[in-house]
Design brief:
Elements lengths: L10 H4 L11 H20 L3 E2 L5 E3 L19 E3 L5 E4 L4 H11 L7 E10 L11 E10 L4 H17 L7 E7 H10 L5 H11 L2 H13 L2 E3 L5 E3 L5 H11 L6 H11 L4 H20 L6 E3 L13 E12 L5 E12 L5 H4 L5 E7 H10 L10 E3 L8 H12 L4 E3 L6 H10 L4 E4 L2 H6 L1 E6 H8 L5 H7 L3 E5 L3 H12 L1
Parallel strand pairs: 1-5, 7-10, 14-15, 14-16
Antiparallel strand pairs: 2-4, 3-4, 5-6, 6-13, 7-11, 8-9, 11-12, 12-13, 16-17, 17-18
EC number: 6.1.1.21
GO molecular function, one term: histidine-tRNA ligase activity
Keywords: Aminoacyl-tRNA synthetase, ATP-binding, Cytoplasm, Ligase, Nucleotide-binding, Protein biosynthesis
Length: 493
């Protein structure tokens, strides 16, 4: 295409970004980095080691994460390598781990306990709180078949959430197992894949639709308020009652829930096996000291049951928040995991026991920002520049502060004093430093404590009084500047 054929670029063409790829400013970036540091610190304390894999994997290595082999870009972002093999940006952090374990083979000692944090990409329709690029923080154990390994993941996940500031009653990790639900499905005669999927979808709506709505979806079907009709799973009244008894078996303690489940699941082999799994997990959770309120057995959890081979767990934020629209709502799911013994087998043909837990860092950071839990970040000390021709004094002062370990910058614009002070306010600066001709002659600097000045200014009624008082502003010898600034910065922290 020649230059003549190239359409001219306009401001509208340039100033846009792909949907689902969020821009992040410092407060959110800092919050996200802090979450990663804290959570991976917990993982390391529990004996896990770091592993970092590349952003791209061969598309066929994604396995169940690749929705359609004939359309490599469906669900993932894929490109062709120079040898015409399809590569895709990683969909999550688990598929690369499975590939790594398969490649390492017998040279990798097992159990292999790893953690990882980084961005993942999904070619899905974006929406509120749903992005195409986001961060996850995972821990996985490969080569541990016992359900105490699942319990460890759950207890460690709860500890990680407490480490980032979650209190009792503000979060919960819900635990279920695929085999337990399979036992219930077998018991009600749901042998067809379509019927089983309809039951799973109905149970997944229990929180939103309530018992009556789910009962309709388990039976003949349900018409919503808009008049749309959803065909049901077609279960009879007795079968609907049994499935609902299973879904509502949760109680105040894990022991009581297990008792209720023993009654609800019946005598199927899958049901007995699933119940034994949860009993083993509950026993290990007790040994690990996981509080009853942090971890509950909840048979209504049906996340990813087509992917997981045993226990599944989902972490949920319970605290209600008020959005900008004034409405109160819950953040909901911020992580989860489960046992996936079949994932490595697609490379090796051999079943390798594996279990993992993942925390959605981007979602958790956004939730904490909405809840006002992210740390207020102080900006740099701003050194005002009154000499546009020669800013050497401002540059020297900023350098002196940085060498003393204080975040600082010299003003680089061409505006006067008032706009420079407004700039310092916008930067959330703890203080501004002014050096004019008078200060240079006396060997002093004028410091304005911006936070203290703002507090004192609220009590001043007139402009004249403000100019006379100059709240939060004082003069010190240049030799005492660093210590004076350090006191301001530490006081504001």
């Amino acid at each position: 295409m020649s230059d003549k054929d190239t359409p001219p670029l306009t401001g509208k063409d340039l100033a846009r970004k792909p949907r689902g790829f969020p821009d992040k400013r410092e407060s959110l970036i800092h919050a996200q980095a802090g979450l990663v540091e804290t959570i991976t610190g917990v993982y390391r304390q529990w004996g896990f080691e770091a592993l970092e894999t590349g952003a791209f994997e061969y598309a066929d290595a994604l396995g169940k994460f690749l929705p359609d082999d004939d359309r490599p870009n469906a669900g993932v972002f894929a490109i062709q390598d120079d040898d015409e093999q399809w590569m895709a940006l990683r969909y999550d952090l688990t598929a690369p781990l499975a590939r790594f374990v398969a490649e390492a083979g017998q040279s990798l000692g097992k159990p292999f306990r790893r953690y990882a944090a980084g961005p993942v990409w999904r070619n899905e329709k974006p929406g509120p709180g749903r992005f195409r690029e986001f961060w996850q923080c995972d821990a996985d154990t490969i080569g541990a078949p016992g359900f105490h390994a699942d319990a460890e993941m759950i207890a460690m996940g709860a500890e990680a959430l407490r480490a980032v500031g979650m209190e009792t009653g503000e979060f919960v990790i819900r635990v279920n197992t695929r085999r337990l639900l399979n036992g219930v499905l077998d018991g009600v005669g749901a042998t067809q894949g379509e019927t089983r999927l309809a039951i799973l979808r109905a149970l997944d709506k229990l929180d939103r639709l309530g018992v009556e709505g789910v009962a309709d979806l388990l039976g003949e079907g349900r018409m919503d308020e808009s008049g749309d009709y959803t065909k049901g799973a077609g279960l009879g009244a007795a079968e609907v009652k049994r499935v609902l008894a299973f879904a509502q078996a949760g109680a105040d303690t894990r022991a009581e829930t297990l008792e209720n489940l023993a009654t609800a699941t019946g005598d199927t082999e899958e049901g007995k096996t699933g119940l034994a799994e949860l009993e083993a997990i509950a026993k290990a959770l007790e040994a690990l000291g996981a509080p009853e309120g942090d971890v509950v057995i909840d048979p209504s959890v049906v996340r990813g049951l087509e992917y997981y081979t045993g226990p599944v767990y989902e972490a949920e934020l319970l605290r209600e928040v008020t959005g900008e629209d004034g409405k109160t709502y819950r953040i909901g799911s911020i992580g989860g995991g489960g046992r996936y013994d079949d994932l490595v087998a697609r490379f090796t043909g051999e079943t390798v026991p594996a279990t993992g837990f993942s925390i959605g860092i981007s979602r958790l950071a956004a939730a904490m920002q909405i809840m006002g839990e992210t740390e207020k970040l102080d900006g740099p000390v701003v050194v005002l520049n009154f000499d546009k021709e020669d800013p050497s004094v401002a540059l020297q002062i900023a350098t002196e502060l940085r060498r003393a370990g204080i975040r600082a910058e010299a003003y680089m614009g061409s505006s006067g004093m008032r706009p420079q002070m407004k700039y310092a306010d916008r930067r959330s600066s703890p203080a501004a430093i002014m050096v004019g001709e008078d200060e240079l002659a006396k060997g002093t600097v004028t410091i304005k404590d911006l936070e203290m000045g703002a507090l004192k200014a609220k009590a001043i009624k007139s402009n004249e009084e403000y100019r006379e008082a100059r709240p939060g502003q004082f003069e010190v010898p240049r030799a005492e500047m660093v210590e004076a600034i350090r006191k301001i910065v530490e006081a504001q922290k």
